[in-house]
Amino acid sequence: MGFTLAVGTFLQHLINGLTLGAIYGLIAIGYTMVYGIIRMINFAHGEIYMIGAFIAVTTFTLLLGAGVTSVPLALVIVLAVSCGFTAVYGWSIERVAYRPLRTAPKLAPFISAIGMSIVLQNFVMLTQGARSKSLPPVMTGGITLWRDGDFSLGVTNIQLFIILLTVALMTGFTLVINRTALGRAQRACEQDRTMAALLGINVDRTISLTFVLGAGLAAVAGVMVTLYYGVIDFYIGFLAGMKAFTAAVLGGIGSLPGAMLGGLLIGLIEAFFSGYVSSAYKDVAAFSILILVLVVRPSGLLGRPDIEKV
Amino acid sequence: MSTEPLLDVQGLTMRFGGLLAVDHVDLTAERNRITALIGPNGAGKTTIFNCLTGFYKPTAGRLLLRHPVRGPIELQKLKGFGVARTGVVRTFQNIRLFPSMTVLENLLVAQHQALMPQSAFSFAGLLNLKGWRAAEDAAVETARDWLRRLDLLAVADEAAGNLSYGMQRRVEIARAMSTNPLLLCLDEPAAGLNPRETRALAELLVGIRVEHGIGILLIEHDMGLVMDISDRIFVVDHGARIAAGTPAEIRNDEGVIKAYLGEPDADEATTGTESP
Amino acid sequence: MAAPASPSIPFARNLREAGIAAAIAMALAIPFLGLRTVNLDQGLVVQANLRYVPLAGLVVFLGRLVLGLLAAPLRRAVAPLAGLKPPAGAQRLRPYGGPLLILAAAVLPFLPFANRYVIDLGTTALIYILLATGLNITVGLAGLLDLGFAAFYAIGAYTCALTTTQLHWGFWPALAAGGLASSLFAVLLSLPILRLRGDYLAIVTLGFGEITRIVILNWQSLTGGPNGVSGIARPTLFGLTFDRRAPEGGHTFAEMTGIAYAPEQRLIFLYLVILALTALAAYTVGRLRRLPIGRAWEALREDEIACRSLGINPTMVKVSAYATGALMGGLAGCVFAARQGFVSPESFGFMESATILAIVVLGGMGSQAGVIIAALFIVVLPELARSFADYRMLAFGLAMILIMIWKPGGLLSGRTPTITLSARKAKSMAEATS
């Protein structure tokens, strides 16, 4: 009895961790892609995700007001609207705050990104108010996998939706990077931007599209979080961004599968550590594991080792 | 040679994964002598250098330095910076200066090992004590001497990164010499120099090896320079040593000619070495 | 293209670009300016203020148009200024700049307009200058990006808080303990991670910063958790306190000097303490740059491999840079704790680290004068913008972006050599002739 309960609890933490990890992973891809192509920590990426979440809340509220009751229809509309607008934000941020600094010393775009992060947070706070926004549950119900007395192990529909959508997006995304002209251009720019330009690749457009794609994925994560927790505020981007960035580095920054793996690991560490040890120290656990991994593998789990050229 | 060589390399082997980059190479370098290491591109010369100067840990082999004060030292057991502290100091194929620091500052950084204790690990320096000031003056004079020898006095206060290529090469040599080395390892010092600069380099190397009683180990593709100034030449190809000897011996070595020119065609004379 | 437009950009093209910018601005405005979610009792509703959308478009259109038309003439007007060098006399005055500045700062609290508010602001600015001076060693000189510098600030502050409240130490020994504890912490933390390069190092420092904050927040029994520590000892002058009434067995400044008690005296004294510490730190860094250790820091920033080839142990150089920077961060933390009389974890979050880093980068990495200017900017600007209340952080973020675009190397980006042969030559000749 005790044993099965223990297994059940374990599985429940696993499911929660996977859900959280999927969200971190989607945000982490934006960090890792931007880093891969312009070697810059896009510190404002967490705010992009926050913007995606806000647009999702606005759109949901509008749809509810308009009397749309079909959940799948609402989800499709919200995802489309949120991704669309958030992508415009991603594009504009690169154009305004980073592109003029393409040849600047390494830290200049980073400071510009911190500035952008402050701007976006305050912009959202001023236009939408500082109070948190909560949404009535959009998706309810779930599947009970197993029941034993008071204890039940289940996957909610939202969790299922998050995990499945993430898997689908990751598959599609891998195809885009590996098979399409855009993906080729992107990988070429990662290797050598000057050479790529000489070969006729429009570097500016490739970088812009990278930001657009990253923003789109962050918006999906924003929609997911809105559904999952139902409460957001203008400050959520900071912590999520930091976790996702940690995830990207843990997986090996610049590596797409690495970002996903890192996201999952951070999600799982958080879920298990809060479940079994202490929820107050869950972030300490995540960062400690990151540090341990980097000490052993300085380029992250799936990152290409950085060979020192003498 | 009556004395034992300064550096004695035996069975140096370096393997990167499945790639055998250096295969049981034996090598010696002596004081007051210029030893050249030549071979076609990709033969493993720079890898040998990286092992000698502590940047790579060799897979196998013994690198013995006969230090006049510290006695015999096995270099392969030291960390990178530890090798430099024994007096084996190198330059780089792609010049590595401290680009935004001035030429003089570059030469003072090179004297860090001596200056650090003289500044009492910064404490005497912070108080600007007399002993420290004297030590710093001496270091500046050492730097000034080398700048004069390499004709760099006029640019002493320029940022090193703003100098011409030829000047940067000279700064790198001056910086290495400021450490007061035992064995100076130069990785393609003539690359990118014009003929006049190359001649000046040759004179300089011949001069300092005697005046300062140091050994010079040289990787170089300019065969004219190598043949002119080397006392002894080692040839490597595909990671293995294929010949060793005086310039005259190497010039006529069948194996070397083959390595450089490929298999000779039927009746084409193979008299042409790369000597101009 | 981001490249500057050619001088004779046709008006039509300008118009078209302004049009595109306006269209994008309107798209950006719709979900935030145009639609506003409002919390009501019955739940969330969306209010439409769609008139803001074309307004945003119009503003951006005009702004982009004016910028496009003025960019070329403006650049032509500014171009000759770039070639200007400060007059030769300015170079000779340079050594006096520091002392003059310190003197000016020292008389500030005694000037007629210096009320509590001004002195307090001055103290805050000086704390940031001291913090940024410390971080400047790590980031500006040694080139090691540190995103968790607030951890050292926190350790200094909590060491001071705990030694004075739990062990009943006075301010001065607590100050020394705070600086040393920070420094020691830096050595312990940096040793395992020095193998990491660049951005990996940066994320690990960020992690350490967060770990420190979370541990302080949750170690209730020691740190009081979110409630913080209060009752921290105030600085004393040779054992004299700045209270109205002397503590048991002690004396007050007012009693011993015969100067009438005034509550500002303590503020002024604290201001002078942090000024002295900051001046000492700036002087020390200035000297260290001219010593082997400082040159090794800079050399490490320029090329670590070349450093190794010259027998320099990169680990020692890095650890010393971290430790020296952390020492100053710890001292600043102590002064901060003593000023507030209270510390809590929320003062040491990531935004604090980012602000200190922003001071270093905005000022121009490695430049002490830059640190001072940028710290004043960062502390004073939000205060000046206080009348805009809600908009001040927005303006602050925008200013950070604009300054970086305007001067990517920071406000004072030039590097001054630590030694020049020409100056030495002049000196030795002067000695010879005398």
Automatic annotation (TrEMBL), chain A:
Q: What is the lineage of its organism?
A: Bacteria, Pseudomonadati, Pseudomonadota, Alphaproteobacteria, Rhodospirillales
Name the record gives this protein: Branched-chain amino acid transport system permease protein
Which segments cross the bilayer? 14-36, 48-67, 73-92, 104-124, 158-177, 207-228, 284-303
Q: Which domain of life is it from?
A: Bacteria
GO:BP terms for this protein?
D-alanine transmembrane transport; L-alanine transport; L-isoleucine import across plasma membrane
Q: Which CDD domains match?
A: TM_PBP1_LivH_like (cd06582)
Its annotated compartments are:
Cell membrane
| Organism, as annotated | Nitrospirillum iridis
**Would the keyword Nucleotide-binding be found if you checked this record's keyword annotation?**
no
InterPro entries, per the entry: ABC_transp_permease (IPR001851), BCAA_transport_permease (IPR052157)
Does the keyword section mention Transmembrane helix?
yes
Q: Which GO terms describe its cellular component?
A: plasma membrane
- Membrane topology field: Multi-pass membrane protein
Which family does the record claim for this protein?
Belongs to the binding-protein-dependent transport system permease family. LivHM subfamily.
Which keywords does the record carry? Amino-acid transport, Cell inner membrane, Cell membrane, Membrane, Transmembrane, Transmembrane helix, Transport
Molecular function GO terms recorded: L-isoleucine transmembrane transporter activity; L-leucine transmembrane transporter activity; L-phenylalanine transmembrane transporter activity; L-valine transmembrane transporter activity
From TrEMBL, chain B:
GO CC annotation: what is one?
A: plasma membrane
Q: Which CDD domains match?
A: ABC_Mj1267_LivG_branched (cd03219)
GO BP terms, alphabetized: D-alanine transmembrane transport; L-alanine transport; L-isoleucine import across plasma membrane; L-valine import across plasma membrane
Question: A Gene Ontology MF term for this entry?
Answer: L-valine transmembrane transporter activity
Q: Which residues form the ABC transporter domain?
A: 7-263
PROSITE patterns according to UniProt: ABC_TRANSPORTER_1, ABC_TRANSPORTER_2
The record's keywords, sorted A to Z, are: Amino-acid transport, ATP-binding, Nucleotide-binding, Transport
The record's Pfam families line, in alphabetical order, gives: ABC_tran, BCA_ABC_TP_C
Q: Which family does it belong to?
A: Belongs to the ABC transporter superfamily.
Q: What is this protein called?
A: Branched-chain amino acid transport system ATP-binding protein
Please name the source species. Answer: Nitrospirillum iridis
Automatic annotation (TrEMBL), chain C:
> Superkingdom of the source?
Bacteria
Enumerate the GO terms in the molecular function aspect: branched-chain amino acid transmembrane transporter activity
Q: Which CDD domains match?
A: TM_PBP1_LivM_like (cd06581)
Q: Where in the cell is it found?
A: Cell membrane
* Annotated Gene Ontology cellular component terms: plasma membrane
* All copies of domain High-affinity branched-chain amino acid transport system permease LivHM N-terminal, residue ranges: 13-107
* Keyword Cell membrane part of the UniProt annotation: yes
Keywords associated with the record: Cell membrane, Membrane, Transmembrane, Transmembrane helix
Please give, as recorded in its UniProt entry, the membrane topology of this protein: Multi-pass membrane protein
Q: Where do the TM regions start and end? A: 20-38, 50-73, 93-114, 126-155, 167-188, 268-286, 319-342, 354-381, 388-406
PANTHER family registered for this protein in UniProt: HIGH-AFFINITY BRANCHED-CHAIN AMINO ACID TRANSPORT SYSTEM PERMEASE, HIGH-AFFINITY BRANCHED-CHAIN AMINO ACID TRANSPORT SYSTEM PERMEASE PROTEIN LIVM
The molecule here is called Branched-chain amino acid transport system permease protein
- Organism from which the protein derives: Nitrospirillum iridis
